[in-house]
Amino acid sequence: MKSFLGLFCLFLIFLSGQVFAATSVLTYDVYAGGIHALNAKLTIKKERTKYDVILSTGTQGFLKKMADWSGRYISKGNVKSDKTYPTFHESSSTWKKKTEVKTFKYNGKGHFKSYQSTEAGQNTTPKDVDLSLAKDTTDILSATLQTMLAIPKSKLCSGKELIFDGDRNFRLTYSDTKAEKLTKSDYNIYDGEAVVCKVEVKPEKGKWRKKPRGWLSIQEQGRKKGALPTIWFGQVTGQPNLYVPVKIRVKTDYGTLFMHLTSAKTW
Predict the structure, then answer these.
(1) CA distances for 117 relative to 78, 102, 111, 122, 234, angstroms
(2) Is residue 260, in this structure, part of any structural domain at all?
């Protein structure tokens, strides 16, 4: 009897692993000021206790000829009660055929372990990097996945995670939940209810400039226009416990940037 019960438990564990294990691949077109500027692909592999997320993007068409840029971002880690605990995060950016890579390692239980940066294969990790800034931090993909896993249960968009990027840390906040019905269009395949979230980066410690630059500059441009960066999350992957970005809007001084979902596959 004990042997039978043991085998039956193993079968249930195996079966539950099959139920919860799924890989979703989503593709997006990004328009800036009406111009198709970027392509992006988001791959999410979610098992019962582990996850892998890959986001790859790059300029395309006319813009690629003018500014050939691409980026690839990878996060791996553990999941417990919809809380994500990264073990590995890599941020890779290629500009003018030079690639900069930032690698972050964690213990999968909420503690940061190490950071390294390279450019063109050479170690460029600053000798004076302040690793105290990494205490109690996560990475941006893991933080976003955590929000995506929480939405199906609460129908609320909430999150307030501390992120370390190698030079500084910042608070990534998801807030201001509302529901909105989206309709399929020539640009976006999504049709259905979506949970709308505001996204805000709040600088904390480290090497922050007095004048906003990069993403922070774009965010503040939108704030002046009355709209922080906004994400619409919807259910399209066949995974009942996962909402994914189906649309993004970012207002800037140079026009409004939209990211539209163009395909979604799950197996």
Answers:
(1) 24, 4, 19, 8, 35
(2) yes
